[in-house]
């Protein structure tokens, strides 16, 4: 006798265009087709000479048993499920029946599971891109699963911020489950969390509704509806439900840093979580110089403004908190390099044990901390005497300690520079090295911009290559500059770099590409002489 075969087919949402090639092929090659009546009707155009076994909705076990029985007689039997046969479909049930009979793959009937598009995917595609991130499916049918267990799963998924696709949300008799589910979800999510309701996806009577958690029950929900609940980041844009893909929301003092490099793939309109319209957009360096305090305060005022959603939640007394990764840097000051024990203790106490503290080559302590209350944190650190700075692609001013303040002549200029341009966004992170005398013991000329004060005035270096085997110092472009002129000049250079620099372009590359910056011409760096090592290494 010919070896029988079970073809367990998921035929997707119902339209032929959304059925896989293999699913169609398997239906055509089967001797018989077994399925729920409605599903058989959905694949009617593909039925030719195959025998048909149609059963009612709750007769899955008898369908599986009949399929196995027929396959054991040597037939090729197609068992059809809508969506994916392995997601609330027939695949598991058929295996259960086979296992009960002692089936082994080697000698028993052949089994092929043919995947299809499940409702979470088909309905998701009609709503926009609500899945995108960690998601789960939960069937609200307590026909085969105890309701207490379903409730636990809803609770856990809601708390863990999964996007949730609810299958079988309601039927004629089973109406309370979706109401209880909504209540559980509202414990963890804001009432205006986007919710998508899709009925009969890709079928004749398709219906799509985008609503929110508070109002979802005002709409028709039935057995043919899939309910997709957004997570805390999901938003609605132009009638589409979209969940951003990024895993972390990192904020620093003056901007939101997206983890989506290469740069600027997203536009502001598509980043409702971002802190746009901030200092970056408003600031006019020349017209409105900002002190570090003003810069930090403005940034923080934006940072602490939570989304409308969070505000709504709080007003309604809902415990809903989104933890953001807040990144910033602290230092004891521009010229001051000494951190007191009290400051260190305040730092540790403020950021907590869960924070990451990284001491950088730029004489800063970079803090990365999960928090939903960054303003309290920065206020405490400000009170402890720390200078707070943004991180990322910003201007970092690295000054020497001016011989413990003994060589203080040029400190006003470096403090003014910090006030005017410290921490502002530039195409790529850059350092301005500032040393208080010709000893240059803090290596000012090895920074993107180097400044050395000497009795006559300031020397300016541009375009050092700060890293790599061919690292080199910057080009000496001016000597003996008067203090006011130096500050104006450096501010203009930074403005030019901001305007004409390409995303991610380091300053030395920018200088080389544009050739002239503020009247200073780029000069090729002499090639290095390679000397063979006597030892051959
Ligand atoms: S560069 Fe000059 S002023 Fe600065 S710490 Fe060194 S010796 Fe002192």
Automatic annotation (TrEMBL):
Its EC number is 2.1.1.131. The keyword Iron applies. SUPFAM superfamilies: Nitrite and sulphite reductase 4Fe-4S domain-like, Tetrapyrrole methylase. Pathway: Cofactor biosynthesis; adenosylcobalamin biosynthesis. Keywords: 4Fe-4S, Cobalamin biosynthesis, Iron, Iron-sulfur, Metal-binding, Methyltransferase, S-adenosyl-L-methionine, Transferase. GO terms for biological process: methylation. InterPro entries: 4pyrrol_Mease (IPR000878), 4pyrrol_Methylase_sf (IPR035996), 4pyrrole_Mease_sub1 (IPR014777), 4pyrrole_Mease_sub2 (IPR014776), Cbl_synth_CobJ/CibH_dom (IPR006363), NO2/SO3_Rdtase_4Fe4S_dom (IPR006067), NO2/SO3_Rdtase_4Fe4S_sf (IPR045854), NO2/SO3_Rdtase_FeS/sirohaem_BS (IPR006066). One of its GO terms (molecular function) is precorrin-3B C17-methyltransferase activity. Residues 418-514 form the Nitrite/sulphite reductase 4Fe-4S domain. CDD domains: Precorrin_3B_C17_MT. It holds the Pfam family TP_methylase. Residues 5-215 form the Tetrapyrrole methylase domain. The keyword Metal-binding applies. This is Precorrin-3B C(17)-methyltransferase. The gene is cobJ.
């Amino acid at each position: 006798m010919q070896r029988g075969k079970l073809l367990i087919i998921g035929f997707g949402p119902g339209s032929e265009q959304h059925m896989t090639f293999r699913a169609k092929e398997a239906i055509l090659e089967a001797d018989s087709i077994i399925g729920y009546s409605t599903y058989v009707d959905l694949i009617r155009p593909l039925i030719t000479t195959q025998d048909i076994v149609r059963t009612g909705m709750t007769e899955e076990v008898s369908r599986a048993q009949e399929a196995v029985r027929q396959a054991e007689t040597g037939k090729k039997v197609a068992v059809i499920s809508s969506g994916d046969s392995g997601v609330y479909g027939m695949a598991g049930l058929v295996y259960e029946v086979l296992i009960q009979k002692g089936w082994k793959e080697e000698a028993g009937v052949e089994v092929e599971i043919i995947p299809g598009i499940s409702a979470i995917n088909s309905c998701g595609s009609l709503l926009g891109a609500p899945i995108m991130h960690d998601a789960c499916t939960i069937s609200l049918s307590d026909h085969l699963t105890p309701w207490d267990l379903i409730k636990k799963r809803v609770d856990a998924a809601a708390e863990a911020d999964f996007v949730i696709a609810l299958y079988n949300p309601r039927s004629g008799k089973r109406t309370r489950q979706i109401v209880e589910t909504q209540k559980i979800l509202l414990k963890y999510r804001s009432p205006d969390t986007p919710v998508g309701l899709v009925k009969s996806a890709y079928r004749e009577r398709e219906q799509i509704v985008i609503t929110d958690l508070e109002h979802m029950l005002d709409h028709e929900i039935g057995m043919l509806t899939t309910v997709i609940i957004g997570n805390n980041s999901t938003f609605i844009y132009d009638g589409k439900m979209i969940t951003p893909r990024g895993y972390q929301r990192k904020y620093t003092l003056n901007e939101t840093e997206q983890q989506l490099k290469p740069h600027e793939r997203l536009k502001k309109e598509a980043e409702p979580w971002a802190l746009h319209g901030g200092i970056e957009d408003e600031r006019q360096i020349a017209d409105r110089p900002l002190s570090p305090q003003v810069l930090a305060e403005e940034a923080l005022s934006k940072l602490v403004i939570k989304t409308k959603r969070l505000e709504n939640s709080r007003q309604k007394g809902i415990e809903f908190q989104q933890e953001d990764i807040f990144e910033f840097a602290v230092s004891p000051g521009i010229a001051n390099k000494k951190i007191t024990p009290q400051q260190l203790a305040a730092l540790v106490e403020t950021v907590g044990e869960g924070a990451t503290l990284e001491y950088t080559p730029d004489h800063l302590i970079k803090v990365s901390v999960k928090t939903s209350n960054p303003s309290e944190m920065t206020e405490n650190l400000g009170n402890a005497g720390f200078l707070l700075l943004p991180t990322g692609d910003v201007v970092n001013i690295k000054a020497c300690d001016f011989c413990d303040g003994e060589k203080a002549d040029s400190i006003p200029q470096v403090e003014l520079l910090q006030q005017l341009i410290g921490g502002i966004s530039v195409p790529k992170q850059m350092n301005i090295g500032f040393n208080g005398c010709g000893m240059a013991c803090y290596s000012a000329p090895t920074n993107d911009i180097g400044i050395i004060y000497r009795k006559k005035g300031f020397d300016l270096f541009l375009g050092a290559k700060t890293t790599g085997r061919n690292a080199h110092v910057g080009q000496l472009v001016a000597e003996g500059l008067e203090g006011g002129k130096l500050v104006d000049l450096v501010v203009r250079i930074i403005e030019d770099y901001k305007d004409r620099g390409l995303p991610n372009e380091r300053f030395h590359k920018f200088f080389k590409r544009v050739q002239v910056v503020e009247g200073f011409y780029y000069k090729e760096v002499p090639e290095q002489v390679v000397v063979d090592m006597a030892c051959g290494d």
